[in-house]
Give the backbone structure.
Amino acid sequence: MSVSHFDADTAVGRTEDGWVADLHERWNIGHNPNGGYLLAVAVRAMLADARRPDPVTVTAHYLSPPSAGRVGIRTSVVKPGRSFSTVTAAMIQGERERVRVIGAFGDLTGQSGPTRVSARPPEIPPPDECESLLELTRRAGRAVPEVMNRFDLRLPADSPWGRPGEGDPFEIAGWIRFRDGTQPTTTSAVLFADAFPPTLLGAVHAGWVPTLELTVHVRGRPAPGWLLGTFRTRVLVDGLMEEDGELWDSRGKPVALSRQLAMVLRA
Amino acid sequence: MSVSHFDADTAVGRTEDGWVADLHERWNIGHNPNGGYLLAVAVRAMLADARRPDPVTVTAHYLSPPSAGRVGIRTSVVKPGRSFSTVTAAMIQGERERVRVIGAFGDLTGQSGPTRVSARPPEIPPPDECESLLELTRRAGRAVPEVMNRFDLRLPADSPWGRPGEGDPFEIAGWIRFRDGTQPTTTSAVLFADAFPPTLLGAVHAGWVPTLELTVHVRGRPAPGWLLGTFRTRVLVDGLMEEDGELWDSRGKPVALSRQLAMVLRA
C-alpha cells in the first residue's frame, strides 16, 4: 500500500478553537518549510470549513517563516456564498502568526459559461528526453533542498534557465510530478505553483528569494500524470520581482495560473 | 483651485471602531461603485494604519457590491514589519461585509537590490493619435458608465479590442489619466488597474463581468502624465477568466502588475 506524503503531511485536525497541523521537514528548504506547502496545509483547513472541493483563488502573505512541527490554523468563513465561499486562515506557531491566507472555494466541475483558451503550454521535449533537476543540482555540486526530493522535476537539456541573455525574461519551464506517485489535485496545485526553483537563480546573484505574497488561481482539475509548468519574471525592480506561473495537465488543459511577489536577498 | 475627485472621494475618517468613508456615485458602474475604487478607498485606511506611503501588494475579494454612500472599514494590522507592514481591511455597509482586503505596505523609494526589466510597454500611437473610449462608446450608441467620465482613456484606432480573432487573447491597450488633471500615484494605481473595460467585451457575449478577486503589485511611483495600460485574457474556462494588467508611466517605467479573476455573466 502506498502512502501519499502530500496527503499525510498536509492533514489537519479540528480542535476547540480551530485546526492544528504537523509540518513535516520533508518539505523544508534549509530550516523552513516551502511556502507552497504551507499554503496547501492552510487550504486543507479552509476547504473543510468552506465545504467545497476546490480552491479557486487563494492568496498567502508570508509574515515569518515557521519551522517543521506543530502549527495552529485559525480559520474564519467570511462569506458562505452560492457559487464560492470566502475563508481566511491564520497559521500560528509559538504564538506568532506565520502566514495569513484568504481564499475563495467552490466546485470547478459545477461552473458553466464560455470557454476559450488562447494560452498554450510551453513546447518542450517529453519528460523522458528532459534532465532531472535533482541530478543537475547534484552534478553541479550544489546542495539539494529537502523539498526537492519530493518531486520528479525535469528540465529540457537546452533550458535557458540559469543563463538568460541580457534582454530575456528569467524563465524556467519543465515537467513536474510527485516522486511517490501521488496524482495531482486542485489542492496540490497550490504547492506545485511554488515548487520550481526561483526563475532568476544562477542569472542574478542572490542569497535567497523569499516570497512576500503568492496568489494561485486554480482553473481546472488536473488529469493524472505529469504537470507542465512554466514560470517567468519580467520585472525585477530594486530587488522586488514577480514570478508568473502556469501549470498545464497531461492532456494540455490549464490547471493553475499563479503570481508571486518575491524579494531578492543578497548572499 | 482644482479639486481632485480621486483624493476627495477616497478620503477616510477615523472613528472609535475603525474608519468610515463616503462612496461617491461618480465612480459607479450602473448602481454599484467600480471595484478598483472600492479597493483604493480601503487602501487609504490601510496606508494610514501601516504608516507607510505605498501599497506594495494588495488583494481584494469582492463579496457583495455596496451602493454609493457611507461604509465602515474595519482594519487590523497583522504584522508591523521592518520592510513591509501587512494589514487587512473589511468594508462594511448595512451590516454586511462587501469587500475583504489584505495588503503589504512599504516605501517603494526605500528598496534596494538588482533591477532588470525585460517587459516592455505596448507599442501604440501617442495619445493625440488615439481615440477616446468615451467618444467611441457614445458613437456606438452604448451607455457610458458613470465611472468612465472620471478618466481620459484613449485606444489606438486599429485596436483589436472588441474583435479579436479566434486564436487571439482578449486584449485592450491604451492611455489613461484622470480627466480632472489629478496626477497618478501608487494609491490611484490600484484604481487604474481596474479602470479599463473588460478585455472580452464585444468579443464574447456577456452581460457583465464581475471581479471575484483582484491583486495589484505596485512596482514604482509613477511620473506625472499619462499611464499606458495593457490588459489581457488568455484563459477563459467555463465562464471564469483572468485579466492580467500592466501599467507603465510616461517615462516608460513599470508602475503596477495586476491580475484579477472574473466571472462572465450572461446578459
Summary: Chain A touches chain B through 56 residues (CB under 8 Å). The longest strand of chain A covers residues 69-80.
